Amino acid sequence: MATFYHDAYQIYELLDKSYQDPPSPAAMRDLFNRRPSEARREFVYGQTLLHKSFEFFSHETEVIDILLEAYPRALEKEDDDGYLPIHRLLLGRWGSNIKEVMGKIIDAFPECLVTPTTTGGELPLHIASKRTERVDIIQYLLCFPDACQYRDYHGKFPLDYALEARIPSPAIVQLLVNQHPVLLSFPNESGALKIHQMLNKCSLLERSNYDDLIEILVSGCESSLRFQDSSGSTPLLLACTQNHSLSQIYSLVRKWPEQVTPNRSKCIFDPTAFNGEILYPSLISKSTKMSNVREWLVREPDARFRQDLHGRLPIHYAVISKSKGAEDIVRCLLFGQDEDGVASAVMSNPPSVQQLSTKDNNGRLPIHLASASPTCRPEILKLLIDTHMQSLMEQDNDGRLPWHYGECSRQDLVFETTAELFPEMEVILDLVPEDIQWDVLSVKCHD
Fold first, then answer.
1. Nearest to 266 by CA among 279, 247, 282
2. Alpha carbon distance 24, 147 (integer Å)
3. CA atoms of 58 and 262, how far apart (whole Å)
4. Cα–Cα distance for residue pair 160/245, rounded to 1 Å
5. Are the CB atoms for 101 and 140 separated by under 8 Å?
6. I need a labelling partner for 98 at 20 to 30 A (CA). Which of 32, 55, 320, 392 fits?
7. Is the domain defined by 283-447 classed in CATH 1.25.40.20?
8. What is the per-residue pLDDT across 169-220, written as a single tens digit (0 to 9) for each?
9. What percent of the chain has pLDDT over 90?
10. Is the CB of residue 311 less than 8 Å from the CB of residue 359?
11. What is the band of 387 on the pLDDT scale with cuts at 50, 70, 90?
12. Mapped to the 3 state alphabet, what secondary structure does the chain carry?
């Protein structure tokens, strides 16, 4: 008895330590011939020998063959985490012949393809879709194509996991989209479709690596271009406001050109044409050039007075521009230019006041947005105040004056100027956080 137990203990130790060599097939056959019950032994966390071998030695097909022959029902056994052996196989190291091992499992127990983990509700396809090294494994699991449309307990499809990979594989994403393109029209809990999610993701990373993925998602469901997420943004609006690559924007526009220039035939890539109300936020970008704004306004002088779907004019975006020429862009929009392209300094020009007194859908003037931006330059704030002083006393829909936002963003110039120009104003501290109320009082009391 001691000898048999020792044999089994040795096998367990070998399977439990990934740095060890796999057990000897001859020793395993000898053990199971002498004591068949050892093949059914369960170890820590409820794992069978098959779980252990898939976790550490999936590339040893002879070991797998012996275990399947000695105890084929192990394929149906769940461990304490709710994983079948096939789940452990896909979670472990993928050897060069993992496809051959999968074939043995699926032939012996085809139901494993539709058996989810009890803890996360993940099918084998969910687990495999999180990895990007083997496209052929995904293709093999798609012998049951309906697995693509199964949600796990987190509400995610295999496609979601493929897109969430650190660097998603276009080939894997294409395979999953081809099976069930309708999944591209399913929003998540935030109302975002797959195209919205991917645009948000690649805005933070190397955008050029995602051109193929954007094209796949757009081609798979062109109607997704017409959907807005919970913030009211279409895919094109996201791409423009987050300064995505031109190739990605082209993929979005090519499928639905009307979204850019409704009732007009202009192209957004013509630098001499104003690129449509939906693209106003491009003014925020670091790459916006004064020459482009100048050419837009030469073609369409009235564009500066057209409000977008948020009720904002171009000046609302220009005051928070990250461009090096932000001040010149603001002056150009407010005052126009002379023949030499130099912004005029006529502060009483009515068009400038018309722009600075236009409120967006939240009741905010350009001075509200500029005050709320911690990166807005003092010279721009001073220009706005000098041009339309009365805007300092305009409230938005929440009852906040520009200085309320200025105090939160540490734009102290706004409150100091407001207190100087309107000494009798009522200082309502409830509209700013408690931790900065003392700063407001100190300035007011000092005056």
1. 279
2. 37
3. 57
4. 23
5. no
6. 32
7. yes
8. 999 999 999 888 888 888 777 778 898 888 888 755 555 567 888 889 988 8
9. 13
10. yes
11. very high
12. CHHHHHHHHHHHHHHHCCCCCCCCHHHHHHHHHHCHHHHHCECHHHCEHHHHHHHHCCCCHHHHHHHHHHCHHHHHCCCCCCCCHHHHHHHCCCCCCHHHHHHHHHHHCHHHHHCCCCCCCCCHHHHHHCCCCCHHHHHHHCCCHHHHHCCCCCCCCHHHHHHHCCCCCHHHHHHHHHHCHHHHHCCCCCCCCHHHHHHHHHCCCCHHHHHHHHHHHHHHCHHHHHCCCCCCCCHHHHHHHCCCCHHHHHHHHHHCHHHCCCCCCCCCCCCCCCCCHHHHHHHHCCCCCHHHHHHHHHHCHHHHHCCCCCCCCHHHHHCCCCCCCHHHHHHHHHHCECCCCCECCCCCCHHHHHHHCCCCCCCCCHHHHHHHCCCCCHHHHHHHHHHCHHHHHCCCCCCCCHHHHHHHCCCHHHHHHHHHHCCCCCCCHHHCCHHHHHHHHHHHHHC
Sorted by sequence, the CB contacts under 8 Å of residue 312 that are 6+ apart come out as 280, 360
Cα–Cα distance, 383 to 355 (Å, whole number): 13
pLDDT category, 55, cuts 50, 70, 90?
low
Are 66 and 28 a contacting pair, CB within 8 Å? Answer: yes
Q: How far is CA 332 from CA 190, 200, 271, 315, 381, in A?
A: 38, 31, 17, 10, 15
Spell out the residues 6+ positions from residue 10 whose beta carbon is closer than 8 angstroms to its own.
23, 27
The residue to which tokens 């070991």 are assigned: 63
Backbone angles phi, psi at 405, to 5 degrees: -75, -35
Q: What is the pTM of this model?
A: 0.54
Residue 322 structure tokens: 């990250």
